[in-house]
What we know:
Shape: elongated
Mean pLDDT: 85
Strand content: 5-15%
Strand order of the largest sheet: 1-2-3-7-6
Structural class: alpha+beta
Largest sheet: 5 strands, mixed
Amino acid sequence: MISVQLINLISVGIFGIILSAVFCDIHWTGKKRLTMLSGIAAILLLQGVVYFRINPDIVEELYPLITHIPLIVLLCILNRKCLWPTISVLTAYLCCQLRRWLALLIVAVFSGGSHMLDIAELAMTLPILLFLIKFIAPTVRSVSHYQISLQIQFGLVPALYYGFDYLTRIYTNLLLDGVLVAVEFMPFVCSLAYLFFVIYISKEQQIRGRLEQTQAVLNLQMQQAVREIVALRESQEKTTAYRHDIRHHMQYLSSSIENGQYGQAQEYIQKIYSEIETNKVTVFCENEVANLIFSSFAKRAKDSGVRMQVRAEISRCIPVAETDLCVLLSNALENALHACIEQGKKGRAGVIEVTIYEKSEKLFLQIINSCGEDVVFDDEIPVTNRSGHGIGVRSICAIVEKYDGMYTFLVRDGEFILRISL
């Protein structure tokens, strides 16, 4: 007759094997399920041979050889990886302690013995297994997609517990004998793991905070870009309206001259001329947004005493969203204009040269501007410690990365060069 203890031994084996499989990120096909079931049967058969044919007392000691290592090999074959299947098995072994501890709690409350312990463990097996499969396994599997260093950190505690359990409880009696180092080891590991967890979470929160701040700035820049495009288009429409209504202006001027009101006519001419020049959009290329941005910055550069040259050959429809193009050009030209103004304060001429064109369905942009020699780079990206600055460069990088493009920043012979392809 099969004893309750043997049934409990079989159940914990199946519990650990199933958990190891669901913790491992495997795309289960019919063939893989059949392979897994065959592997489970083979492992249970090997356990049975050792239990019935050799010695039931050494099953627990041989468990790594007859269960864990074969299971790791099986999962490695199914998963085509080695690290994560190992971590899955170790994590499942750690989770096996949940059923044992809860069973021990039941025994302690009801003052039961070893027979009640086996029954309690059996009773706890299925509910705990279903809970772990539904609520814990998806999160554990997601860790397998993290970088290797994080996977190792995740598997460190299960690995330490596995080694500790076998060294102090199964292969020796250090834990049972109350050896202080053995008794205090796992609390020490828990404390250490908690401290590392606190440090890691703090670091992640700081990174997340910076990313959220950058994202907020990018969103504001995007909204500003939309407003700028709308405002520039309104200005262009206003200029077009002036040109359309030129006959009305001419009639007014003709009437003023006929009535000898030359001063009033001259004043009206100057007023119309100023309004048209203010809202003038220079045509650099076929792309409307590019013309609006280049015209705006060309006027600002002229007012600041900076010479700006633009060579643009891009079509009306390009593979870049209008808002992204606006943010990209605005930030790049803003930085270039700021650098040239700084050079002007030092008595040096400021020059901005812009080249943008399309080739092989890609957009290429190069902006060269005067600058000093004190530009600081971090990982080939210019950085600054000045408050409120540096967001423009991050915006440029973010947009280029959004389109899987490439960017290059460099300083050469007193010139700052930005090259972008996307």
